[in-house]
Amino acid sequence: MQPSPPNPTPLRLQNASTLLEVDLWGGAITRFQLLPDGVNPLSFRFGPEQMPSNNQGGAPYQGHFLCLGRWGEPSEGEKAAGMPNHGQFANIRWEAEEGENEHICLMKAAAPLEGLRLQRRVQLDAHSAIFAVEEKVRNTYPPGPPLQHGAASYPGGPLSGWAAAGRLQCRPGLRPAAGPRSQPGAALASRAYQRG
User: Fold this and answer.
1) Cβ distance 103 to 115 under 8 Å?
2) Bigger pLDDT: 5 or 39?
3) Partner of 46 at 20 to 30 A CA spacing, among 3, 35, 62, 67?
4) Phi, psi (5° rounding) for residue 54?
5) Mean pLDDT taken over the chain
6) Exposed/middle/buried for 84, CB within 10 Å: 0-12, 13-18, 19+?
7) In 10 A of CB 86, how many CB atoms?
8) Segment Disordered: which positions (predicted)?
9) In degrees rounded to 5, what are phi and psi of residue 50?
10) For residues 140 and 67, what is the distance between their CA atoms, to the nearest angstrom?
11) Which pLDDT belongs to residue 89?
């Protein structure tokens, strides 16, 4: 498990109406805030004492986080090997890459216990409160074990009583999925898988 970063600095995308932040410690989208009222439905965050024992020392569950490799608790043998709940990606430090412009951020992460590498592109619309996430996953274990993929969002703050709802466009295969479709006011995710 990697130690918590001393001064985590989120990746930040902003337009005139919206602020979006991604925490590289766990790769979670932690802020999708309409300006200027300050409501952030992704303010949810577990404290260290709330994290499962096999996730201690890793990133907290927060905002909208990725569950890749598995969703839920690993087996006892996987726990003994150091596998955290919901896979390594939600628990490790991600690396930022240079974005194409001020409305796009790029990042990547590798989960050696899972045998997976991931590249993510987050794009905030230049004018509207909408963003798109594209994730490309590469399985480095031939022929590659089956994997589970999901994402978890729990509304926080004034929206904490609302049911979490989202749209996910999944398309397993050898080539990246087509880009996400735009829908005003919604965050859409496009997930693509590559083998080998």
Assistant:
1) no
2) 39
3) 35
4) -80, 0
5) 77
6) buried
7) 25
8) 173-196
9) -90, -15
10) 18
11) 94
Pair of tokens at residue 156: 């926080």
Q: Which two tokens stand for residue 173?
A: 């295969």
Instruction: Kindly tell me if the per-residue pLDDT of 140 is higher than 80.
Output: yes
Compute the distance between CA of residue 32 and CA of residue 190 in angstroms, rounded to an integer: 18
Report the 3 state secondary structure along the chain: CCCCCCCCCCEEEECCCEEEEEECECCEEEEEEECCCCCCCCCCECCHHHCCHHHCCCCCCECEEEEEECCCCCCHHHHHCCCCCCCCHHHCECEEECCCCCCEEEEEEEECCCCEEEEEEEEECCCCCCEEEEEEEEECCCCCCCCEEEEEECCCHHHCCCCCCCEEEEECCCCCCCCCCCCCCCEEEEEEEEEC
- Adjacency order of strands within the sheet including 116-124: 95-97, 104-111, 116-124, 131-139, 187-195, 167-171
Dihedral of alpha carbons 35, 32, 180, 183, sign: negative
Q: What is the pLDDT of residue 149?
A: 63
